[in-house]
Amino acid sequence: MAATLLGLGLDLLGTFVFGISGAMLAVRRGLDIFGITVLALAAALAGGMLRDVALGVTPPAALQDSRYLLAAIASALCVFVGHRLIERISKPVMLLDALGLGLFAVSGCRKALLYGVDPLPAILLGVVTAVGGGALRDMLVAEVPRVLREDVYALAALVGAMMVVAGQALALPGGVTVVVGVAAAFLVRVVSVWRGWQAPKAPGS
Amino acid sequence: MAATLLGLGLDLLGTFVFGISGAMLAVRRGLDIFGITVLALAAALAGGMLRDVALGVTPPAALQDSRYLLAAIASALCVFVGHRLIERISKPVMLLDALGLGLFAVSGCRKALLYGVDPLPAILLGVVTAVGGGALRDMLVAEVPRVLREDVYALAALVGAMMVVAGQALALPGGVTVVVGVAAAFLVRVVSVWRGWQAPKAPGS
Amino acid sequence: MAATLLGLGLDLLGTFVFGISGAMLAVRRGLDIFGITVLALAAALAGGMLRDVALGVTPPAALQDSRYLLAAIASALCVFVGHRLIERISKPVMLLDALGLGLFAVSGCRKALLYGVDPLPAILLGVVTAVGGGALRDMLVAEVPRVLREDVYALAALVGAMMVVAGQALALPGGVTVVVGVAAAFLVRVVSVWRGWQAPKAPGS
Q1: Chains contacting C (3 or more CB pairs within 8 Å)
Q2: A38-58 per-position pLDDT tens digit
């Protein structure tokens, strides 16, 4: 995705949005400006760095291109100044978070396929890219990560990544696959929150 | 080890067994099918992925060969369906976990030596391979990892990895070293649980 | 830094000092000799290993040169035997910890620049090197990491790493940059503890 200007823009938007989620959690925990920045960086960059390190892309994109870092720092500053406003518009934030989830799941899976990873592990890497930053963010404040607590979070990333594999198998153009994958992950996430979908628990647990 | 069919089989068995441990923890915490799968994947694959990334083997084996991923997913499905049965046979599960510990400690140390790592760091990497997945599993649910809570867990992995280094120093055939290393780690772990061995604490702590 | 004998010595001192911090935490939590060693290794080695893996330096220095591992194990043994003495001299330990923070921030940023990373991400990598080990140490015992709890911890590492970038921009000799960077990080940390500096929180949080 990062090959195109649009792709880079979407990637940076995802980074910014996840940074917002990390910084907002830090504010809720009463952390100072440095704690806010650390959690914003962790949430925004860790998923993509995990993906790149696993693919042998070193230094990872987040260290090769300063704009990733600047997007994450910008999210921390926005939250520092405007967290009360952001708290009030939590619905838009949830929508942006769902968008980031889709963007990262799709870009992670695409990059893995590009580096010759098989479809099944490529889907896993897409999911890790999408949920890894948020998992580290929550573990840093000693919380059980959202990906384990919320029912349809990993599933949404999974659906997005699977669309990429399906699109490649059907030889669809890359742009179509990206749009379908991001939209699918976004819709699954948003509809599941809206309708209160719950995934099945183990019978008798 | 993965060079031989037997070796791959043992590796996949270790992956499956550790996946069971992650999935069972998820069921006990009341997580849904996705949480069960995430914890199974983390417990089964994280140790080996840490090892491979540290050795510069990218993508790591767990992403190059889909069978690792399938073994971990299979463990999640088995637990989803049969966790009550598995809970009842906890002694066999502990034995399998001890076997997985030995398998991963030995395979991790062997792979490190193969990549030219010195004996002492190779032993460390064997231990990390064996305990890393379980540590991530426990950290994901905000628990202190078993490797810190249970007295003779890291020690068992250490003994297994040391056998590999000793076997190489004595120029023993690889197969003998594997059997001795896995058996030693397994026995140290099982006997320590059975006899309630405790490691010394710092005097006056 | 590790290119010179002095540099290696400083690196090993940083490793030892951070190992002490991990081992002391383990003693306070009542962990046994293996738990003490695991936390010492995590605190001493994780930051540098993250840095090296992100830069594609595999195996990381801590696995290529057994002296890093021995320094960490030595710190665990010192604490096992002498933790009551070390507890009493907590002020020197805090000073050593501040020194380790400066050493790792500087060496991490220098290594990143050496591998062609841009200044801004190089500063980030310096900070990650300095605070990564401590963060893993605290997460392993299910605590919120010190880097999030203490006001001027990440800032001190940031100042040290920024000095390295400034020194390079001014074409200062490497030795001068190292001394200035380590001293700056050390002083910011020590003075902030001494004067009780607090970083600003988000207004209205």
Answers
A1: A, B
A2: 999 999 999 999 999 999 988
Count Cβ atoms below 10 Å from residue A195 Cβ, excluding itself.
9
- Quick check: B56 contacting C, CB < 8 Å? yes
Q: Which chains touch A (3 or more CB pairs under 8 A)?
A: B, C
Q: Which of A39, A28, A117, B166 is nearest to C205 (CA)?
A: A28
Do B70 and A120 count as a contact with CB atoms less than 8 A apart? yes
Q: Is B93 exposed, middle or buried (0-12, 13-18, 19+ CB in 10 A)?
A: middle
Shortest CA distance from B51: residue in chain C: C59
Minimum distance, in Å, between the CA of residue C131 and any CA atom of chain B: 18
Burial A53-76, CB ≥16 within 10 A → b, else e: bbbebbbbbbbebbebbebbbbbb
Pick B63's closest partner by Cβ from A54, A139, A202. A54
pLDDT of residue B1: 41
C194: exposed, middle or buried (C-beta count within 10 Å: 0-12, 13-18, 19+)? exposed
- Determine how many CB atoms are found less than 10 A away from the CB of residue C177: 21
Nearest CB to A59 within list C55, C144, C198: C55
Say how far apart CA A134 and CA A39 lie, in whole Å.
Answer: 9
Query: In Å, how far is C91's CA from the nearest CA of chain B?
Result: 20
- What does the pLDDT look like over B115-149, one tens digit per residue? 999 999 999 999 999 999 989 999 998 888 888 88
Task: Please report how many Cα atoms fall inside a 13 Å half-sphere around the Cα of residue B189, on the Cβ side.
Answer: 31
Structure tokens at B194: 């059975």
Q: Which of B29, B49, B142 sits opposite A54 (nearest CB)?
A: B49
Q: Domain locations in chain A?
A: 5-195
pTM: 0.87
Rounded-to-integer distance, Cα C74 and Cα B130, Å: 23
